[in-house]
């Protein structure tokens, strides 16, 4: 079914909430949430259950995918299972795992990032699934191919070259090899095999990593896709690779097994890059993906409160839902007042309020909210937010990443 026509209009009026209403910017600190009425509001909005195909999530809080490189040899061990289960036990409804490499030699660039192929790795993931389910949560793996972001000579397969739609380098990386049709077919098959393995191992769905300048996004973006065949040119043609991956995954799993697609405008090498300069261009990206079997879009932004296009306060997730009619997940510096690039440059931030986030969820701008760094630093973030214990929230410190569990 085609996406509905795009209507250029604002995201809707805000309803007054009295003294507990705060601006939609995280510089509004968390102390306002310590009032009982604000805490009750947060619990009411975030505690609503959500369903997507066969996936039933107990609340609207998801854990965003975050690479940690804690899986030696690409195998997630008991510590990884404990890491995810701890967040689930503390109220996170849906876990989206860190990116995990599909079965293609050029997919990865580290032997400490988990993979999603091989009996040893898949058995490790099955243990993660069991731990999360036992803790009351649901979990989907993020299937990943880094494409041209791969460092030549790096593990897990040192001889594998970086590959991409046109072999163009990303950021400081070196040029690589342009993918031919056989390469494209191999990668599509690898994603489909990952989807089938996820369902067989008890996962609750999958997420396809189509964001941040990695392989799928390299096809989507005109800056890295200079092809003149059926996989390059205009937006629908550049979207063909992603749509074929989605269709192959849909064919490999049950009809109600959810497929989530993560997308972004920005790239790791270019924060000002964009797939779509207008809602009409965004529609051209989303429509083939929705028709191919994508059930929901996870829209990565650096700051969830920023409007995506002029003339509306909708963020990227809001526009994706409006255009496609599909559920969406919003994300971007939730619960923190420092944008993540500054945080990883050593700038210490504080804990921020979420009233603006609740405004957006309340008017159904998007359906779930993914929380990243706040959950890294504070595994009980969801539990504290849902039960009004916001005075106990912890700020994120990048220096503590090596010991996070």
UniProtKB/TrEMBL annotation:
Listed InterPro entries: Aldolase_TIM, OxRdtase_FMN_N, YqjM-like
Gene3D superfamilies in the cross-refs: Aldolase class I
PANTHER family: NADPH DEHYDROGENASE C23G7.10C-RELATED
Named cofactor requirement(s): FMN
Alphabetically ordered keywords of this record: Flavoprotein, FMN, NADP, Oxidoreductase
Lineage, top ranks: Bacteria, Bacillati, Actinomycetota, Actinomycetes, Kitasatosporales
Organism in which the protein naturally occurs: Streptomyces lycii
Positions of the UniProt region annotated as Disordered: 1-35
Record's protein name: NADH:flavin oxidoreductase
Superkingdom as given in the UniProt entry: Bacteria
Domain NADH:flavin oxidoreductase/NADH oxidase N-terminal residues, every copy: 48-392
């Amino acid at each position: 079914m085609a996406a509905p026509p795009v209507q250029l209009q604002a995201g809707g009026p805000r309803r007054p909430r009295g003294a507990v209403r705060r601006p939609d910017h995280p510089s509004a600190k968390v102390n306002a949430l310590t009032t009982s009425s604000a805490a009750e509001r947060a619990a009411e909005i975030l505690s609503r259950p959500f369903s997507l195909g066969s996936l039933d999530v107990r609340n609207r809080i998801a854990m965003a995918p975050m690479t940690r490189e804690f899986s030696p040899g690409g195998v997630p061990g008991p510590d990884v299972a404990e890491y995810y289960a701890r967040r689930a036990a503390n109220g996170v409804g849906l876990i989206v795992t860190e990116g995990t490499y599909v079965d293609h030699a050029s997919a990865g660039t580290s032997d400490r990032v988990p993979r999603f192929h091989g009996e040893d790795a898949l058995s490790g993931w099955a243990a993660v699934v069991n731990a999360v389910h036992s803790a009351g949560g649901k979990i989907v793996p993020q299937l990943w191919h880094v494409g041209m972001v791969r460092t030549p000579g790096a593990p897990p397969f040192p001889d594998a070259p970086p590959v991409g739609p046109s072999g163009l380098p990303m950021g400081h990386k070196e040029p690589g090899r342009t993918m031919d049709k056989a390469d494209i077919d191999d990668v599509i098959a690898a994603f489909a095999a990952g989807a089938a393995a996820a369902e067989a191992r008890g996962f609750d769905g999958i997420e396809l990593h189509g964001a941040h300048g990695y392989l799928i996004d390299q096809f989507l973006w005109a800056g890295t896709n200079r092809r003149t065949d059926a996989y390059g040119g205009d937006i629908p043609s550049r979207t063909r690779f992603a749509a074929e991956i989605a269709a192959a995954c849909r064919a490999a799993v049950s009809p109600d097994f959810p497929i989530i697609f993560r997308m972004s405008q920005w790239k790791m090498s270019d924060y000002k890059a964009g797939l779509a300069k207008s809602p009409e261009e965004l529609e051209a990206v989303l429509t083939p993906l929705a028709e191919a079997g994508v059930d929901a879009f996870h829209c990565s932004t650096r700051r969830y409160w920023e409007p995506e296009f002029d003339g509306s306060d909708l963020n990227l997730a809001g526009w994706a839902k409006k255009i496609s009619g599909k559920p969406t997940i919003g994300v971007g510096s939730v619960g923190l007042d420092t944008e993540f690039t500054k945080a990883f440059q050593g700038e210490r931030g504080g804990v921020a309020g979420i009233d603006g986030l609740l405004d957006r969820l309340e008017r159904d701008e998007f359906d779930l909210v993914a929380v990243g760094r706040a959950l890294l630093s504070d595994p009980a973030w969801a539990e504290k937010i849902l039960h009004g214990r916001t005075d106990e929230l912890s700020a994120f410190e990048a220096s503590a990443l090596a010991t996070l569990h």
